[in-house]
Amino acid sequence: MCGIVGYIGEKQVYPFLIKGLKRLEYRGYDSAGVALLNGDIKLYKCKGKVADLEKITKDQDTKGSIGIGHTRWATHGLPNDVNAHPHFSDSKSIVMIHNGIIENYTALRKTLESRGYTFRSETDSEVLLNLIEDVQKKEKLPLNEAVRIALSEVVGAYAIVLFSKENPDQLIAAKKGSPLVIGISKDEYFLASDATPIVEYTREVVYLEDLEIATISRKEGLKIVTIKNQEITPYIHALELQIEALEKGGYEHFMLKEIYEQPRSIKDSMRGRISEDGSRVALGGIKDYEDKILAARRIIIIACGTSWHAGLVAEYLFEDFARIPVEVEYASEFRYRNPVIYEDDVIIAISQSGETADTLAAIELAKSQGATVIGVCNVVGSSIARATHAGSYTHAGPEIGVASTKAFTAQVTVLTLMALSLGRKKGTLPDQRFNRLVDDLKKIPSKIEKVLKQNDKIERLSKLFFDATNFLYLGRGYSFPVALEGALKLKEISYIHAEGYPAAEMKHGPIALIDEQMPVVVIAPRATHYEKVVSNIQEIKARKGVVISIVTQGDKVVSEIADHCIEVPDTDEALMPLISSVPLQLLSYHIALLRECNVDQPRNLAKSVTVE
Ligand code: M6R
Q1: How far apart are CA 351 and CA 399, in angstroms?
Q2: Do domains 251-451 and 454-602 have the same CATH topology?
């Protein structure tokens, strides 16, 4: 987590740093800071958002054409002014920002303290910085060389950018585990955790790889060496990101904009992947791996959070369409469980950001044991996209709201296309069903448009429930992952406790919670288990629970018994998660607004979880 930016060039750096930090605030927003070099190092930092930082720098000297900035998601030490980044080294001659976690910082700190170093903050970052200063002084080394040597003593993850007043024409950066992009323009260089702060200045970027150290100087430009001191020729990528995608575009919040973007983003996820006549589905990125997937002993899906819910939908899809056994794992559990992984297993790693630390570590584990790893990522060029053998992008466009919405439906779309293609190739999906599914899939964007037209109705509904303290979400079959996702959306942005359950599991425990205070959201489209879910609704009503139900348009049965119904257009039940998740996103959004929560930046969360 944490967002970092840096600049060296001819222009005044402060406006770039502030604008860049605002773009990166989705990565963390508990404190912010900048450091600029203008003869001396000027450092400003505070608890709070980038807007608070702007307030404290309003009347300060912010001149300088070399500088760094940071927006924090606290790992070590409270979010306060002192723990905010950038940090000064002990002698105050070097200043540094860090994203990541230094795991052996306690031992390093003790050693440095015994050598006379004092620490101002509780952070692991300050320990790394003083280690760099110590190596530099002890060995009388140039700063970039000291960084290289110090980093070889460090266990953990980092993306760092630093400069010193002794080398006023140089920025140094390094990374392992946390992302870092370098933008290159005429006589100037930009650094950032992702390309969003950079895109309006240049489209030429270098993605720094793990264990690489970049030295950027005004005279000599960009030089990259590995931690073993081997020189690397930087590979320059062309950015395709559109600036408009990073703005709210007239919506009050990014989350609302992203919910409304879904008809378009789902079309983008399908674009070029379904033949004109609908008879073929092909994902270019995995074409050469399809035989391997079909021959796999099993597919193991690894992901976290919402991406894990998309993985659960995929379990139903792959088993249903292609008859391949699937296991869905939380990446954070999988990586430490000593799992049995066979060489003929295929792993599918799902991640919006492509930077989630647990998912990345699980991928490395699977690769080390010989499995083939396929990625499903949204962010182009992200660490997971690069760490996997092959993969498909979801093409949802930048998702800025911390609560994932369009990324989820884009993931489910891509996974549906994969399952369709595999089922067709294997012969487990009869032509008739394949054709009907493809036909239905193409109609999903216009059906979501219809759901979005019910926004006012959903807003009115939210007024009845915004002060509830608990919610239960139930669904069965393909609607079970939707129930989990609906509950996650509500709890993360409104701070209401919400649980998602398979509807049939209710009688094994959660039914005890039901009384007139308990709103129960039941996802009950016309599908295989419809009658059974209707019985579950009866059971809730018999215990005075309040039922809000998502039903298929024209439903007569549930609408008779549920307290409130939101109708969604009919589709094949395998595609229903793409539609039924949307009213739940809107419900959470409106409830959170009524509770005056910050929907785009909910407390304690960050968009990319690049630490364990
Ligand atoms: O970037 P990823 O898809 O790997 O992120 C995984 C989760 O951190 C993410 O889905 C999280 O649960 C969202 N806040 C959910 O809205």
Answers
A1: 12
A2: yes
Residue among 394, 404, 611 to mutate when testing ligand 1 (max atoms within 8 A of CB): 404
Is 22 annotated in the active site? no
User: At 535, which helix (H) or strand (E)?
Assistant: helix 530-542
Cite the DSSP H helix spans in 369-477. 383-387, 406-426, 431-452, 455-465
Domain boundaries, the chain: 3-244, 251-451, 454-602
Look at residue 317 and tell me whether its pLDDT is greater than 90: yes
DSSP, collapsed to helix, strand or coil, labels residue 257 as helix
**pTM score, whole prediction:** 0.83
What is the rounded average pLDDT of the residues 70-90? 90
Specify whether domain 3-244 bears CATH 3.90.1150.10.
Answer: no
Judge if the beta carbon of residue 179 lies within 6 A of ligand 1.
no
Nearest to 567 by CA among 463, 461, 481: 461
Superfamily of structural domain 454-602:
Glucose-6-phosphate isomerase like protein; domain 1 (3.40.50.10490)
| Ligand 1 pocket test, candidate residues 26, 253, 609, most atoms within 8 A of CB | 609
Residue-wise pLDDT for 452-505, tens only, equals: 999 999 999 999 999 999 999 999 999 999 999 999 999 999 999 999 999 999
DSSP assignment of 116-158 equals T---SSS-HHHHHHHHHHHHHHHHT--HHHHHHHHHTT--EEE
Question: What's the CATH architecture for 251-451?
Answer: 3-Layer(aba) Sandwich (3.40)
